[in-house]
């Protein structure tokens, strides 16, 4: 999604969100990620202005001060950025790929089934299709990608062929390089 994303070319506008919009964002985020409810005041403080940045392809970014926190496309779910996920790694369920998949993921490739079923990979949780997941790498501390499962984890094990997780946001993509919201 953010492979060729550029702040200068893809951002079409930004504005400070009204308090009612911020309340809506907070409630949707808590509904989607109940594990962060106790941290929501740290993530989206009530007294800080929240900026909504509109981008091409109907993508919206949510930022507080200069920190990019969430993004969504059209009416889809709010998805945390990798920087936020590194602070709160328990937000998303995770899958672990083997070392051989790392260089492909960092170039924007989708995660294939063999990368999740080989030695060094882990799928400890049974997840349904269309689940937002963090992708961890064998031997690494932080996640390197956020993706959307294209099949259940049970089918990934059984079929062991094709795309298992669609890559949405990964280290060093356009959103990661944006680092902060420009004012």
Automatic annotation (TrEMBL):
Q: What's this protein's family per the entry? A: Belongs to the MCTS1 family.
Q: Enumerate the GO terms in the molecular function aspect.
A: RNA binding
Main localisation, per the record? cytoplasm
**CDD domains linked to this entry:** MCT1_N, PUA_MCTS-1-like
What protein name applies here? Answer: PUA domain-containing protein
The keyword Nucleotide-binding belongs to this UniProt entry's keyword annotation: no
**Annotated GO biological process:** formation of translation preinitiation complex; translation reinitiation
Record's PANTHER family?
A: MALIGNANT T-CELL-AMPLIFIED SEQUENCE 1 (PTHR22798:SF0), MCT-1 PROTEIN (PTHR22798)
Provide the alphabetized UniProt keywords: Cytoplasm
Q: Does the keyword Chloroplast apply?
A: no
Q: Which Pfam families match?
A: Pre-PUA, PUA
């Amino acid at each position: 999604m953010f492979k060729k994303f550029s702040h200068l070319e893809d951002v079409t506008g930004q504005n400070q969100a009204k308090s009612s919009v911020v309340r809506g964002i907070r409630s949707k985020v808590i509904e989607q990620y109940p594990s962060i409810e106790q941290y929501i005041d740290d993530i989206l403080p009530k007294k800080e202005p929240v900026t909504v940045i509109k981008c091409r392809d109907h993508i919206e970014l949510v930022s507080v001060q200069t920190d990019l926190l969430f993004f969504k496309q059209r009416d889809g779910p709010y998805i945390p950025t990798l920087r936020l996920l590194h602070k709160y790694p328990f937000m998303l369920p995770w899958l672990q790929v083997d070392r051989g998949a790392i260089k492909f993921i960092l170039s924007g490739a989708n995660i294939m089934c063999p990368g999740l079923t080989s030695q060094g990979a882990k799928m400890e949780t049974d997840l349904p299709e269309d689940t937002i997941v963090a992708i961890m790498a064998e031997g690494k501390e932080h996640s390197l990608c956020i993706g959307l499962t294209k099949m259940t984890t049970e089918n990934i094990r059984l079929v062991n062929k094709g795309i298992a997780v669609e890559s949405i946001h990964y280290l060093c993509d356009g959103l990661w390089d944006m680092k902060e919201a420009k004012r």
